[in-house]
Design goal:
The complex is a heterodimer of chains A (183) and B (461). By secondary structure, chain A is an all-alpha fold. In chain A, 67% of the residues lie in helices and 0% in strands.
Chain lengths: 183, 461
Amino acid sequence: MNPYKELPETELVAKCLNHELDAFGELYARYVQKIYAYFYRRILNREGAEDLTSITFLKALEGVANFNPARGPFGAWLYGIAGNNLIDFYRRTKKTEGLEQAENVSDGVDVEKEIHAKAELERARGYLEELPAEQKNIILLRVWDGLSFKEIAGIIGKSEPAAKMAFGRAVRKIRAKLSPSLN
Amino acid sequence: MKEELEKEINGIVDDIIRTDFGLKGDRAGLGRLVSDLLAIRPDASPDESFVLKLQEKINQGAVNLTKTRSVLSDKAFSPERTAKDISEGRTQATAGQISTIGTKRGRLISPFLKLPYSYIFGSAAMTLAIVGAIFYISGGQTGSGAILTFPTDIQISAAPSRFEAFPSGDFSAAKTAASAPSGNESKELSLAAAPNAVAAGQMASPSGGLKNYYFTGILPDLPNTFPVLLAKSDSGGGVLNKLKVNGVDLSAFNNTSVETMLIKAGEYQVSLNFKKGEMSLYKIKDEEISGGAAISSDAEIIRIADEFLNQIGVEKASYGEPAIIRTASAAYPFAEILYPLTLNNYPVFRQGGERVGINIAVNAQTKSVVSLQGLSTLAFEAYPYEISATKEEIMRMFGNEEAKPVKTKLGAPLFSYLEIVRSRGEETERFLIPALAFPVKEPAAAVLANQSVVIPLITVD
């Protein structure tokens, strides 16, 4: 029986801070699907998403003893590590951050699925292409990844109100583009 | 599945409208937009074997890290060590000693963790030369003008038919409202069990039930009834007549027939909702972080926020002592201050556990207010509801102190209000329902996060 399964996240984190790192396994179980999805939705490459997911959790395991709950929720911290890894990935593959880079990333494992996904991304560009990278990121974090503004704020390194405002501004821009009469 | 998707879409749309209620009149369009964005979200589920394999690596890495703690020392700090080394349990042999990730005062230190604070800020200078008010009209509905009223204006009312017309299950105690006094008889809300003051902070709702929490104190007696508050959507006059932002007198828009407005007032963009009685503002341009500039003290930051509220004409009588909920630093010099809302001395919480109130962000280097959110009408209709919870039921919800694993200890509860926002078609209604808020006392990490547990006292689906 997993003694950590029923514990709330704050207690799991408290145990990790107390160097009871067995508790990290439960945190992993709760977040692995989300972190994997975060990567896959952005790079559309299964192998790459798996690599980045692995690196993220191993770095998190290493650093969790230094995690400071006062600076934000654990999820924001973990997504922050993931975000840095994604940036590193873009650098390594010499691609710019955003949706565009997804086009050239393919592992050939499920080409048909990826082509379909990339075609759908074309539609997304209709909404998102003119947004600054940060606003685009916030939209995707909220809508695709379902993160709270508190978590998003932790990831982008801004205050929660600032994250909300950037989100509101981005939505307004998209709506203005779709319905100029709105403004 | 479809219901879940609709719930997700509605949740995001509600978020958008709460963020920028100038978009409220475009709810249907926002719904389509969110729906489109969700429809193109790539399906992403990890391979099960990958998840299991990585789980093994994580577990092994945890064991290795725990083992090596006994040999950690300041000298052993090894910035070359990688996540891969840790996952594979490798230690680094250097000059005959075991080296692993470092430690200072017994705490593990990541050799390469860089917190993800990357800042992109706009132009270096703030433009202060926007003159007058350029306004955008959205939402198109004819409204009744400015409606914010301060200070608190709560009226006990009979339950109107529209309340009973709520979908069944929304408020199971709705029937009892029928016995409420008729008319707007009283503004008295006080109950015998007045709460103590609580510090502003963030609180979490219990996840996975309350069995991981224990409470060893004695619950206060619960009243038979407690007023559920419904924010008035049609009150007129009030705060918009009093507010001035950067010299722009908001009373100029008092007689407008629109519901929402977005105006520029100097360096600020101001969102107004005349129907809901809400105002928020933020600086139009992002501010640049000026490296070495001094950071204001917390007391100075609160003074700046206080002064700003005074300047724009907000009365603070219904708000508790302001608290810094995010500290500023040289790397990120934006502090957040919360003025917690208290209605007749009862603190107000969101469902997510945060205190409701005015949230102000201050640039602690330039000593200027960057944003203000959460200023809304304090005019409510009150409907006495029968308390459906009992002390025995609440106590049965908690776990046992002696049970393993270690539980989270809760402190003495406070009578509180819990904010609930419900959608009715394109309309949203804001309710405050009675609740008990239990502040977390142990463990230390949870206390550090200012967590509490909020339990509603009437049944809400």
